[in-house]
Write a structure and sequence with these properties.
The complex is a heterodimer of chains A (256) and B (655).
Chain A: E1 2-11, E2 14-24, E3 29-33, H1 40-47, E4 55-60, E5 63-64, H2 70-79, E6 81-84, H3 96-106, H4 111-124, H5 140-152, E7 158-162, H6 170-187, E8 190-194, H7 198-203, E9 206-211, E10 214-221, H8 229-235
Parallel strand pairs in A: 3-8, 3-9, 6-7, 7-8
Antiparallel strand pairs in A: 1-2, 1-4, 4-5, 9-10
Chain B: H1 2-11, H2 13-51, E1 65-74, E2 77-86, E3 105-108, H3 110-116, E4 132-136, E5 149-153, E6 171-176, H4 186-230, H5 235-268, H6 287-314, H7 331-349, H8 354-389, H9 393-404, H10 406-427, E7 441-449, H11 453-464, E8 468-473, E9 475-476, E10 479-480, E11 485-493, H12 497-507, H13 519-559, H14 561-569, H15 574-608, H16 615-637, H17 640-647
Parallel strand pairs in B: 2-5, 3-4
Antiparallel strand pairs in B: 1-2, 1-6, 3-5, 7-11, 8-11, 9-10
Helix pairs in contact in B: 1-5, 2-4, 2-5, 2-6, 2-13, 4-5, 4-6, 4-8, 4-10, 4-13, 5-6, 7-8, 7-15, 8-9, 8-10, 9-10, 9-15, 10-13, 10-15, 10-16, 11-12, 13-16, 15-16
The chains are: A alpha/beta (256), B alpha+beta (655).
């Protein structure tokens, strides 16, 4: 469904991505791991159409999205993608239900019509009775579930998450991750998670690791995730051409 | 400690430097305006002092000279005349002259010399007899560079040196010892009251804005300061660090503002009030007062920063968390209403004494300051109502922001609201300027002692011949005969007006003859001055409002850059955010602008409403609102490029 080929992105002279291939299918969840500064977030930004790669291409349902205008990419992000970040994504002055309804309203849905699915989504995530609270009045886990509700209310094709549980304690993080995986599966959406946490990565169907802008190691394929796309991704691992500033990276073990 | 504070500022990145710079800029603007407001009060004082020699006190016993004054008119202009006659050789030289004027000498101010250049003697100078222009008056003799003054030297037995003056504008002949210890003209007292009002109107928004800017810096520092607390800094250390940082910015701003004031003084001196521009030196409040303002501003800013710091110092954790916005209490509205009512009642009760005027001014200033209490309260109510009814995302975001942080929204619009208040206050002030040019037929009249009236009229009639018809009447214009005095009136053509007036002035000692319309020259000058003053105040308030709007718009983008960035990532178009931010300003502006105009009208209607309505007030009002709204919106738009760069900032951060 979402695929990328030979992505290269430089910030200044340093390569953040140096020929990365990637693919994810509906219902699949991919964990992107790697050390700090390895290019995980850059990959996520390229895949989501937030930034344009210097070369390479990104396709959603066979349509190139990296060449679209900023306006069209914004529209795409609003309608087909959803995002979940570590923290800070909720507007502090809006009550929970309005935070969730906001993407629908941005799409032109009138406020009343937008609030209905928003409340339903909050109920599904166990936030009944907290619709009128502001982010500051919610616990970290609750706030993250509100952010999740907001991500899912537009019924996205792909959910991008960047350290979604980074600010939560282990139990709460596990809960949020569980809800995230369940609902994404329910919607038959794809999930791309950038994470440091091996426990999160282990719950995804597949894990890839990035080091210095390149895919590194053999992707771990989770149980029952032999969709073929994962194999394709493995097969089209970038050829290390020595262009990178630090040269070829040694292959490393992937968690678990 | 200072070094650490400086390093924190310098290394705090672009946004830390930007916000510190904004504080310094805001303080600079506020200081500039405060220096202006303070200097303005001294300026009228300087004019009053410099012209007080014309009302020098009566000598004990025998004086050295005789002094009398009058106001002569030429067309639509008036020329202050000072008649001087030496009683002995000890008569001191008057200010601005190097010798006591001898009989037959006329000394003119530069402006009067310009005016009389080309005017035949028979139309003006002959009024003083057979005279020669002997010199030019120096600046020490004049209220301002454009003042028209003629000092006429006369013999002690000249009738002009004995005839009583009945006009309020003249001083009857009196023996004097010297030209010191004179009384300043009452008009400067009146102007100083207006100037105090203007100073309050300019200083209150400037001070509020300067203080608010300081608090803005502190709030942007919240997170970092909380971190410092977490790593073990004591509350005292955090307070000191922040104060040092803020005060450094404020001192820089205050110095810059003071220097800027000195640089623009020659330009400000061009503003014509009471008939002329200023001597630049008059706008210098003196080193002590300038220093008081320059030092007072950073102190005010530090105090404001301390208030802003309370939340940080209480808790190292609490600042980043947002909770339900506290409702602003209705007591704010109550205070404003009570003060307004007190002001309105006071305008009805108190008389014209200085104490009463002082009470009124204090009440007025308090009411104006209380606008800052009711303002945020109103913004919050407005935000809540709009949030309930909003349909689109931009309106909803704007309304929730208003309800969440009404003080920030108020800071942006308070300038225009206060400008609207001023414009509303003066909208009803009649600003009619009367046409004083010569008509086809003119009547001029003068008061003379009743006993001499017939004889003087006959002599005058003989001298004027067919240029005018002279008669003794009971009243003409504002002049009315009583037991001791009579009115001599001459009817003439507009073309002969000045020559007839010249003949009459020479023949009739005492008050110079005048047309009824001549009294309007003074009121025209006053109306003109008030109009210019109002324009200056409005311009200043708008400048404050626009700068404060720009600064708070930039500040709010910086404050919320994380949220904006993430909203952009999630596909929110900048258009929606721009729209929301515009509405955040425009909605309260439309509501409060209207409300403040009405409040201003209501408050001052009892004082000046009775004077009648005049279209120029309505014009000022309309222009005020249009320019104010446009400038605030334009200033807010200045932050759009910043918003774009903040939104699209996806530069690599640590994963």
């Amino acid at each position: 469904m979402l695929s990328a080929r030979s992505l290269v992105k430089h910030f200044g002279t340093a390569p953040a991505l140096d020929g990365v291939d990637f693919a994810v299918a509906p219902g699949e969840s991919v964990a992107v791991t790697g050390p700090s500064g390895s290019g995980k977030s850059t990959l996520l930004h390229c895949l989501a159409g937030i930034i344009r790669p210097d070369s390479g291409e990104v396709r959603l349902y066979d349509e190139r999205i990296d060449t679209l205008s900023e306006r069209s990419r914004s529209h795409l992000r609003r309608t087909r993608f959803a995002f979940l970040f570590q923290f800070g994504q909720l507007l502090p002055e809006l009550p929970a239900e309005e935070n969730v309804a906001l993407p629908l309203m941005l799409g032109g849905t009138p406020r009343k019509a937008a609030l209905e699915p928003a409340r339903a989504q909050l109920r599904r995530l166990g936030l009944e009775g907290k619709e009128h609270r502001r982010p500051g009045e919610l616990s970290g886990g609750e706030a993250q579930r509100v952010a999740l509700a907001r991500a899912l209310v537009v019924r996205p094709a792909v959910v991008f998450a960047d350290e979604p549980t980074g600010a939560l304690d282990r139990t709460t993080g596990d809960q949020v991750m569980g809800v995230l995986l369940d609902t994404v599966a329910e919607l038959d959406a794809a999930l791309v998670v950038v994470t440091h946490d091996p426990r999160i990565a282990s719950r995804c169907t597949r894990t890839i690791e990035i080091r210095d802008g390149r895919l590194s190691g053999t992707p771990r394929t989770g149980d029952g995730a032999s969709t073929g796309l994962a194999d394709a991704a493995a097969a089209s691992r970038p050829v290390i051409d020595g262009d990178g500033r630090f040269g070829a990276e040694p292959v490393v073990e992937v968690w678990r | 400690m200072t070094e650490l504070a400086w390093r924190l500022t310098r290394l705090g990145g672009r946004s830390a430097l930007l916000s510190t710079g904004l504080t310094a800029l805001a303080v600079a603007v506020a200081t500039l305006l405060l220096q202006f407001a303070v200097a303005g009060n001294f300026a009228f004082d300087a004019r009053g002092d410099r012209t007080s020699w014309r009302d020098a006190p009566e000598a004990d016993g025998t004086g050295t000279a005789i002094l009398a004054t009058a106001v002569d008119h030429l067309g639509g202009d008036s020329i202050t005349r000072v008649d001087l006659a030496a009683l002995d050789g000890d008569a001191p030289a008057p200010p601005g002259m190097d010798a006591f004027p001898a009989p037959g000498e006329v000394w003119l101010s530069p402006a009067a010399a310009d005016l009389l250049d080309g005017v035949p003697e028979s139309e003006f100078l002959a009024r003083y007899g057979d005279v020669e222009v002997a010199g030019e008056l120096g600046a020490d003799a004049l209220a301002h560079p454009n003042e028209m003054v003629a000092v006429v030297g006369r013999a002690a037995d000249d009738p002009a040196m004995t005839a009583e003056r009945f006009s309020a504008d003249g001083v009857s002949p009196r023996e004097i010892d010297g030209f010191t210890r004179g009384r300043a003209d009452a008009v400067y007292g009146f102007y100083m009251i207006l100037m105090v009002l203007a100073a309050i109107l300019m200083a209150v928004p400037a001070a509020v804005f300067g203080a608010a800017a300081a608090r803005l810096t502190v709030s942007r520092r919240d997170e970092r300061l909380a971190t410092l607390r977490l790593i073990g800094a004591t509350p005292g250390q955090v307070v000191r660090l922040t104060l040092i940082e803020t005060v450094l910015a404020a001192v820089a701003g205050s110095v810059a503002g003071t220097v800027a004031w000195m640089l623009v003084t020659p330009l400000v001196a061009l503003i014509p009030i009471d008939g002329g521009r200023w001597f630049v030196a008059d706008l210098w409040a003196g080193a002590p007062w300038t220093a008081v303002v320059a030092l007072g501003v950073p102190v005010l800013v530090a105090g404001s920063a301390l208030i802003g710091l309370r939340s940080v110092v209480i808790s190292p954790l609490g600042v980043a968390r947002r909770v339900k916005p506290k409702g602003l209490r209705a007591i704010r509205a109550a205070v404003f209403v009570v003060l307004s009512i007190m002001f309105m009642v006071a305008t009805q009760l108190v008389g014209g004494s200085m104490v009463a005027v002082a009470i009124l001014i204090v009440l007025f200033a308090a009411t104006l300051a209380a606008v800052n209490l009711i303002g945020p309260w109103t913004v919050q109510r407005l935000g809540r109502i709009l949030a309930r009814t909003a349909k689109g995302p931009a309106r909803l975001l704007a309304a929730r922001r208003l309800a969440e942080d009404p003080k920030a929204a108020w800071r942006t619009v308070s300038g225009v609201a206060i400008a609207g208040f001023i414009a509303g206050s003066v909208a009803l002030f009649p600003m009619l300027v009367t046409d004083t040019s010569a008509q086809s037929t003119e009547q001029i009249a003068a008061m003379v002692p009743a006993a001499d009236a017939e004889a003087l009229a006959a002599a005058l009639s003989a001298e004027l011949g067919d240029r005018a018809e002279v008669e003794v009447v009971d009243s003409s214009g504002y002049l009315t005969a009583d037991g001791d005095s009579a009115v001599i009136e001459a009817t003439t053509s507009g073309a002969d007006l000045e020559s007839v007036r010249t003949t009459m002035t020479a023949a009739l000692p005492g008050d110079p003859p005048e047309r009824e319309i001549d009294s309007s020259i003074m009121s025209n000058r006053l109306v003109g001055s008030v109009r210019i003053g109002v324009t200056v105040v409005l311009a200043v308030v708008f400048a404050t409002a626009a700068v404060s709007a720009a600064i708070s718009a930039i500040g709010s983008v910086l404050d919320r850059r994380q949220t904006y960035r993430l909203l952009h990532l999630a596909g929110t178009p900048q258009r929606v955010l721009d729209q929301a931010r515009r509405q955040e300003t425009v909605l309260p502006l439309a509501f409060l602008g209207g409300a403040s105009v009405l409040t201003g009208m209501l408050l001052t209607a009892p004082v000046i409403g009775a004077m009648g309505f005049d279209v120029s007030g309505a014009l000022i009002l309309g222009a005020t609102l249009a320019i104010g709204t446009a400038s605030v919106i334009a200033a807010g738009a200045l932050s759009r490029p910043l918003l774009r760069s903040v939104m699209e900032d996806v530069s690599p951060r640590p994963d």
